[in-house]
Amino acid sequence: MTSEQAAGSVVSAVVVYDGRLLLVNERGGWELPSGTPEPAESATATAARLVYELSGYLVDGSSLLRPTDTAPPDTTAPDARSFVVCQLLSETPSAEARLGPEQLRWSPFAEAIDAGLPAPVRVYLEGHAPV
Questions:
Q1: Around Cβ 6, how many Cβ atoms within 10 Å?
Q2: What is the rounded CA–CA span in Å between residue 87 and residue 66?
Q3: Is 11 exposed, middle or buried (0-12, 13-18, 19+ CB in 10 A)?
Q4: Around Cβ 61, how many Cβ atoms within 10 Å?
Q5: What angle do CA 79, 42, 31 make, to 5 degrees?
Q6: How many Cα atoms within 13 Å fall on the side-chain side of residue 41?
Q7: Phi first, then psi: what are they for 42, rounded to 5°?
Q8: Average pLDDT of the chain?
Q9: Which of 93, 8, 110, 112 is nearest to 54 (CA)?
Q10: Does residue 3 or residue 95 have the better pLDDT?
Q11: How far apart are CA 97 and CA 88, in angstroms?
């Protein structure tokens, strides 16, 4: 299995656009769009698929955030989790989204950083927050 494959792990999409982060409210709280990969699906492909299915936005799933690149690894985490940085390709979501507009939120980086996101995502956003 390559570092790009994500079999059996949870993939979370870090969708950024204009200094904001996409959050979804699928399970009663605001969080990153997340889910599990299909067989033989890469983490980046999983992230792009999940974002489209949940929100209707097209994204590119451009790069895998490696915990060692941004923060010390969390060896106490109960599950393997991959974080994929995604760039927005469509500003208008498709009507085929599973979640309604009230379940989607574009949170400014500063707000998102304070919202208890996982360490690799917080560190990434802090390094990319608009000045």
A1: 24
A2: 17
A3: buried
A4: 23
A5: 50
A6: 19
A7: -70, 160
A8: 84
A9: 93
A10: 95
A11: 15
Residue with tokens 């690799």: 120
* Backbone φ and ψ of 126, nearest 5°: -60, -35
CB of 81 closer than 8 Å to CB of 117 = no
Measured distance CA(117)–CA(34) in Å, rounded: 13
Cβ(19)–Cβ(39) below 8 Å: no
Rounded-to-integer distance, Cα 44 and Cα 15, Å: 12
Question: What single letter denotes the amino acid at residue 59?
Answer: V
59 with 15: CB under 8 angstroms?
A: yes
For position 3, what pLDDT does the model report?
A: 41
pLDDT in tens, 28-84: 889 999 999 999 999 999 999 999 999 999 999 888 887 644 444 444 444 578 999
DSSP assignments along 85-98, one per residue = EEEB--SS--TT-S
Tokens 């009230």: give the residue: 102
